[in-house]
């Protein structure tokens, strides 16, 4: 969680090309859910997926390199922030299209079942996604086929630059899921302990072969993209939301458990040092060879890029 | 063996040979609406021949997830027109996954999107959309026109490792011909269906039969037509077409899709860029397919129309 926060804080100042969707303030959701996942569990993510990727076990240096468009990045510089993936730890990709990870999770769950065992898929999506068709289609199918998927609605209360509540009818993500036959739990998405406990309970059911929904309510501290100052938000409500910083809440929980302050500070220092090293390595890494633009497109008809 | 049965035979062989091959889509369990999956669910069970809800986005999206997680899905979309509900998953996810992820995964699948006119079925069940898919990097586009090709090319598509848009023709399911299931046909290889000297007709799918009829009409009038069935539209057999064009000096591309911005335009352009051959296109008018026979016929490419176009082209001197 500290690593996710430090990574995001650095990115906010880094020179990354194109849209950069930060998950600052949402770290507890990624950390609380992924703490329960095995390397062989699978995960589908969103356009705001850095936290999910790190929490699933991806290496910070190769992630940073990808965000910098370097040849040493996870995707060899071909995907960037919106398509970051590390298949070696079961992270099947961020996604540039809202809700599109949901059907992919359904298929991945079918594959896991075909392979045998009790691995699961954690399917992250935002509150905006529940207004797209794949949400209904995917949850319905998962319920009908009893697929091992934990659906995680990471509800940061903003769909791009529109407050989601103003465009969403009914009682929200969990009510919709329950109506389809996917029960679940609501959690305080800014409290990593609450997320961790809720996800743990739900995942034990998912591993037995039943889809479940975790509705984690959090808050998007930054704008939709890094260059969005989010001046459209109500300043008073925004300031109030910032009071519930997940890192501060986590620190208080750790202190209450008797974990010494020095240990937390050490974790913070380690995370910052790891980010700094990743940043330096990414800056020094080479850009992809232009020839790589023609690789991994397709095998059939390879070479026929122009007629 | 029928065109539908031939595909089924290829699929059955592939499923026996490779436990990762699965089928998903509407009504596949009872054999598919055209019998193109008959007998597969009884043989392989409901976990490998998966009946789905009418959820096209989820069907194609799930196929992407299956492929990324190690299965080889065959996707049933019923008709190409319905696949438009899943165009995002096909274009934004399946076609790009391998590239975007830097080769970490690939969305190898065969998406069966029955294409073309379907008699009496009107505008939303009668489209020919091959040009849309040929335009998308990452996709292979196949359009078999015979039972043999439907068997051999489905097998080749399953083996190729790329996402394949597989366009069977809606009106060919019952077509009977001999099929040798052991015969291989590589992707990207055209078939010269009829040899000729004066005009090359490049076509695919069901229109190959209209072109063969047209060739008889033209022959009676002293014009010899060569008919090439491309079979694979991406990558299309450029070498075969250019070689024929060099011999005949005249190329007519005939297809059932709307002529404007159709795939015929691409072929005509390449032939014009690379040879001195005269080129001509013949496709459907840019109108929705109508219901009544008199309206629907406006969108059909009749043998007579191909013959007339070929004869007109033959009258023009070689360059």
What is the fold's blueprint, element by element?
The complex is a heterodimer of chains A (307) and B (319).
Chain A: H1 2-11, H2 27-34, E1 42-44, H3 50-56, H4 60-67, H5 101-115, E2 121-126, H6 133-144, E3 149-155, E4 158-159, E5 162-163, H7 173-180, E6 184-188, H8 192-206, E7 212-217, H9 235-242, H10 246-256, H11 261-284
Parallel strand pairs in A: 1-2, 2-3, 3-7, 6-7
Antiparallel strand pairs in A: 4-5
Chain B: H1 3-17, E1 21-25, H2 40-44, E2 49-51, H3 56-68, E3 72-76, H4 80-83, H5 87-94, H6 97-100, E4 109-112, H7 130-134, E5 140-142, H8 147-160, E6 163-166, E7 191-194, E8 199-203, H9 207-220, E9 225-229, E10 232-234, H10 238-248, E11 250-258, H11 263-274, E12 278-284, H12 293-296, H13 303-315
Helix pairs in contact in B: 1-8, 3-5, 9-13, 10-11
Instruction: Identify the strand order in the major beta sheet of chain A.
Output: 1-2-3-7-6
How are helices and strands ordered from N to C of chain B?
A: HEHEHEHHHEHEHEEEHEEHEHEHH
Placed side by side, the strands forming the largest sheet of chain B appear as: 2-1-3-4-6-5-10
Helix content of chain B: 25-40%
How much strand content do the residues of chain A show? Answer: 5-15%
Largest sheet of chain B: 7 strands, mixed
Average predicted confidence as pLDDT of chain A: 95
Shape of chain A: globular
Named at the architecture level, the CATH assignment of chain A is 3-Layer(aba) Sandwich
Q: How many structural domains does the protein architecture of chain A include?
A: 1
Structural class of chain B: alpha/beta
Largest sheet of chain A: 5 strands, parallel
Number of strands of chain B: 12
What is the share of helical residues of chain A? 40-55%
Tally of DSSP helical segments of chain A: 11
- Rough outline of chain B: globular
Rg of chain A is: 19 Å
């Amino acid at each position: 969680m500290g690593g996710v926060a430090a990574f995001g804080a650095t990115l906010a100042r880094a020179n990354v090309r194109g849209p950069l969707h930060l998950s600052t303030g949402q770290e507890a959701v990624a950390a609380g859910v992924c703490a329960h996942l095995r390397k062989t569990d699978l995960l589908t993510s969103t356009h705001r997926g850095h936290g999910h990727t790190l929490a699933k076990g991806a290496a910070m240096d190769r992630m940073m390199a990808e965000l910098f468009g370097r040849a040493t990045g996870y995707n060899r510089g071909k995907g960037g922030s919106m398509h970051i993936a590390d298949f070696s730890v079961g992270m099947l990709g961020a996604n540039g299209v809202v809700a599109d990870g949901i059907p992919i999770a359904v298929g991945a769950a079918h594959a896991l079942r075909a392979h045998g065992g009790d691995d699961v898929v954690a399917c992250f999506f935002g509150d905006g996604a529940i207004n797209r068709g794949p949400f209904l289609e995917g949850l319905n199918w998962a319920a009908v086929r009893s697929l091992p998927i934990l659906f995680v609605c990471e509800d940061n209360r903003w769909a791009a630059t529109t407050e989601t509540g103003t465009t969403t009818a009914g009682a929200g993500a969990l009510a919709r899921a329950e109506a389809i036959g996917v029960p679940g739990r609501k959690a305080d998405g800014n409290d990593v302990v609450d997320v961790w406990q809720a996800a743990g309970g739900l995942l034990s059911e998912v591993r037995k072969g039943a889809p479940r929904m975790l509705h984690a309510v959090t808050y998007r501290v930054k704008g939709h993209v890094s260059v969005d100052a989010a001046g459209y938000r109500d300043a008073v409500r925004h300031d109030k939301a910032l009071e519930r910083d997940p890192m501060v809440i986590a620190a208080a929980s750790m202190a209450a458990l008797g974990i010494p302050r020095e240990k937390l500070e050490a974790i913070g220092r380690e995370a910052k040092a790891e980010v700094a090293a990743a940043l330096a390595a990414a800056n020094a890494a080479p850009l992809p060879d232009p020839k790589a633009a023609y690789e991994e497109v397709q095998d059939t008809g390879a070479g026929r890029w122009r007629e | 063996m029928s065109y539908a049965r031939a595909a089924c035979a290829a699929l059955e062989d592939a499923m026996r040979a490779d436990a990762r091959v699965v089928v998903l889509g509407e009504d596949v369990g009872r054999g598919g609406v055209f019998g193109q999956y008959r007998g597969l669910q009884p043989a392989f069970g409901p976990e490998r021949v998966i009946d789905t809800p009418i959820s096209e986005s989820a069907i194609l999206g799930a196929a992407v997830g299956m492929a990324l997680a190690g299965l080889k899905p065959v996707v049933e979309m019923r008709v190409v027109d319905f696949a438009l509900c899943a165009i995002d998953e096909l274009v934004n996810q399946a076609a790009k996954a391998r590239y975007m992820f830097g080769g970490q995964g690939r969305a190898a699948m065969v998406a069966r999107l029955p294409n073309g006119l379907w008699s009496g079925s009107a505008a939303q069940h009668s489209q020919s959309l091959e040009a849309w898919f040929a335009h998308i990097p990452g996709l292979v586009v196949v359009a078999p026109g015979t039972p043999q090709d439907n068997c051999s090319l489905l097998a080749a598509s399953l083996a190729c490792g790329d996402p394949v848009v597989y366009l069977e023709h809606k009106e060919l399911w019952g077509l009977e011909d001999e099929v040798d299931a052991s015969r291989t046909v590589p992707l990207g290889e055209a078939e010269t269906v009829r040899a000729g000297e004066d005009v090359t007709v490049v076509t695919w799918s069901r229109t190959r039969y209209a072109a063969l009829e047209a060739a008889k009409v033209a022959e009676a009038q002293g014009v010899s037509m060569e008919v090439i069935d491309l079979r694979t539209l991406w990558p299309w057999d450029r070498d075969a077409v250019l070689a024929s064009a060099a011999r005949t000096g005249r190329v007519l591309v005939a297809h059932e899709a709307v002529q404007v911005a159709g795939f015929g335009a691409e072929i005509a352009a390449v032939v014009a860029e690379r040879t001195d051959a005269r080129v001509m296109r013949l496709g459907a008018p840019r109108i929705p397919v109508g219901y009544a026979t008199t309206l629907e016929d406006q969108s059909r490419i009749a043998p007579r129309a191909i013959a007339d176009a070929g004869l007109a082209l033959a009258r023009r001197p070689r360059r």
